[in-house]
Design brief:
Elements lengths: L1 E7 L1 H8 L6 E6 L14 E6 L5 E14 L1 H8 L8 H12 L9 E11 L6 E2 L2 H6 L3 E5 L3 H16 L5 H5 L16 H11 L15 E5 L14 E5 H8 L3 E3 L5 E3 L2 H6 L3 H4 L19 H10 L9
Parallel strand pairs: 1-3
Antiparallel strand pairs: 1-7, 2-5, 3-4, 4-5, 4-6, 8-9, 10-11
């Protein structure tokens, strides 16, 4: 099995390692270029600290790589970007890009779930040839000597401390065998993935003004909904609010339904009623990201305020 080792900003690492029980992190890439051509969800992604720390200090499990506007990356992940404020986060990116770079372009985001951070005395030393020749990171293969050494040390530390990702703990009996896992997705990952799945446009209206677009859960996380794209839609903020309070829903056939209460109670809503019965303005390119029928039925049955428009 292959795993990735990314060259890690020490300030990023120090900030995040001090946050207890952190569920996700954004390992950002300042120039917006993917660090690898492809990698499966669940691929281990280890943090190789910069000089003078020539060691592995922790890691996480890849959810997905996305390119995001800097402001959206901050709104999605906040301090999980490795900085305490948006200004500090921006300055880290801009200083890494250089003064002459285009500061308006997107930042690359390797979204990692279930991150872990080792105590300093447990950091894993890297081979000398890594330091001089690797600028961004590299893949290792656990079937090779150095890869096997690093991954065995990582697993031993995970199994010996109270920082066990789910699948590592489940495979305790098979210690030493690398395993791809499907990490839990946090709220930041949900927002980032839904936003890009819908092409940064509102599913109902097609609106593309990003500051007013929000990732909406179909079945709320508090109701055991999932932080997956198929349990979400990107909606304009007013439609998000109406969806959450049950004045708008979407059928499993992806048609918009508007409650008659909007007109009856507030004597208005022409802009909303005009969309009643219309198909969604857009769906994600990948069918795997489409709103799943069972979640839409749940919203129809449990949230939407039924009237004669919905059987």
């Amino acid at each position: 099995m292959k795993f990735y080792t990314g060259v890690t900003d020490n300030r990023w690492f120090n900030h995040l390692s001090a946050i207890p029980n952190i569920d996700e992190v954004n390992f950002w890439h300042p120039n917006g270029r993917p660090p690898f051509n492809s990698a499966e969800e669940g691929t281990p992604f280890l943090f190789k600290l910069k000089s003078p720390n020539h060691h592995i200090g922790g890691g996480g499990f890849l959810i997905k790589y996305e390119s995001l506007p800097i402001r959206l990356a901050w709104e999605a992940f906040g301090e999980k970007n490795g900085a305490s404020t948006f200004e500090a986060f921006s300055n880290l990116i801009f200083s890494a890009r250089g003064r002459e770079a285009d500061q308006t372009r997107d930042v690359g985001c390797s979204i990692l779930g279930e991150p872990f951070f080792f105590h300093r005395n447990d950091w894993i030393p890297m081979a000398d040839d890594f330091a001089g020749s690797v600028v961004r990171g590299k893949f290792f293969d656990s079937n090779n000597a150095d890869g096997e050494r690093i991954w065995s040390a990582v697993q031993q530390l995970l199994l010996s401390r109270d920082i066990l990702p789910r699948r590592v703990e489940e495979r305790r009996a098979e210690y030493g065998t690398p395993v791809l896992m499907r990490p839990r997705r946090g709220q930041g990952a949900f927002r980032a993935l839904v936003t890009n799945a819908y092409g940064r446009r509102c599913a109902i209206t097609g609106e593309s003004t990003l500051p007013v677009l929000e990732a909406a859960h179909i079945k709320p996380f508090a109701e055991e909904g999932l932080n997956n794209t198929f349990n979400g839609m990107l909606l304009r903020s007013d439609f998000h609010r109406l969806f959450d309070v049950g004045l708008i829903t979407v059928t499993p056939q992806h048609e918009v339904v508007v409650s008659s209460r909007i007109k009856e109670q507030w004597f208005n809503g022409k802009a909303y009623n005009s969309l009643h019965g219309k198909p969604l303005a857009l769906l994600p390119t990948s069918p795997d990201d489409h709103p799943r029928a069972d979640f839409l039925r749940w919203h129809n049955d449990n949230v939407f305020e039924k009237d004669d428009r919905v059987a």
